[in-house]
Design goal:
About 45% of the residues lie in helices and about 20% in strands. It has about 240 residues and is of the alpha+beta class. The strands form two sheets. The protein has a four-stranded antiparallel sheet. A four-stranded antiparallel sheet has the order 5-6-4-7, with helices on both faces. Strand 5 (about 160-165) and strand 6 (about 165-170) form a beta hairpin. The radius of gyration is 18 Å and the shape is globular. The two termini are about 15 Å apart.
């Protein structure tokens, strides 16, 4: 699963370069999660996941508090959670998750991004079957063996544990997200390199240089869309 972490790092680095846009997307995601349940992360697991992710992107507390207060205030703004699937250059696969208050607008913008950048939209299920929903938790300062021992003691049986440089990445089932984090927190680790609920490709593909350039333009175009929250794909972008 090493290359899967590489792709997550690539996406995170890209996002880190566009923080104002990322903060806005997190603000909306936090609002929607708080609105759908209690505005308290201790009783709202979806909200807790979003807040844990936000921490790894250093989202300012003011943005988090504003989104939660907006949900508490009874705002009538309603958003639909949508998933689009499609293909990029050379048969590469892409999943797009969006939050929108205008389904027609979002569908048109996502379709246009695909069409203008060497891709095309697929039907529901045409791509997702090649991806696995996965909890991805990363920490520094521990070895693979230490993390394995910790999780065994906590009786958390995860899919895989990989060490890359100074980071140990744990891949688990989506419903293990909090279990994995709690195991680390039990030994005083509260800062995570990555804390994501992701869609990871079962296998990655490498693209010829021209296709990869075109593919990166497609991903950039999709991530630039205001309504798009997450973009997943099966292309090995390398280092």
């Amino acid at each position: 699963m090493g290359r899967k972490w590489s792709n997550i790092k690539e996406k995170k680095a890209s996002r880190d370069a566009n923080m104002s846009r990322i903060y806005a997307k997190f603000g909306l995601e936090i609002y929607v999660a708080a609105k759908q349940g209690e505005p308290d992360p201790e009783s709202n697991r979806a909200l807790k996941v979003v807040l844990e992710r936000a921490k790894t992107y250093n989202v300012p507390k003011a943005i988090i508090d504003r989104a939660i207060e907006k949900a508490k205030g009874g705002s009538e703004e309603k958003y639909d959670e949508l998933r689009y699937e499609g293909f990029g250059p050379n048969g590469s696969m892409v999943i797009v998750d969006a939050l929108t208050n205008n389904v027609n607008r979002t569908a048109a913008e996502v379709r246009a991004a695909f069409n203008k950048n060497g891709g095309n939209m697929g039907v529901s299920g045409s791509v997702a079957y090649m991806f696995d929903a996965t909890a991805v938790i990363g920490v520094e300062g521990k070895t693979e063996e230490e993390v394995l021992e910790l999780l065994m003691e906590a009786e958390v049986d995860v899919r895989d544990i990989i060490q890359e440089d100074d980071t140990v990445i744990v891949y688990g089932e989506p419903d293990q997200f909090h279990e994995i984090q709690e195991a680390f927190k039990s030994i005083g680790i509260t800062e995570f390199t990555v804390a994501e609920l992701s869609m990871l490709a079962q296998s990655d593909v490498a693209l010829p240089n021209d296709d990869q350039i075109q593919f990166e333009k497609l991903i950039d175009a999709l991530e630039d869309l205001e309504d798009v929250q997450q973009v997943y794909h099966n292309v090995d972008l390398g280092e």
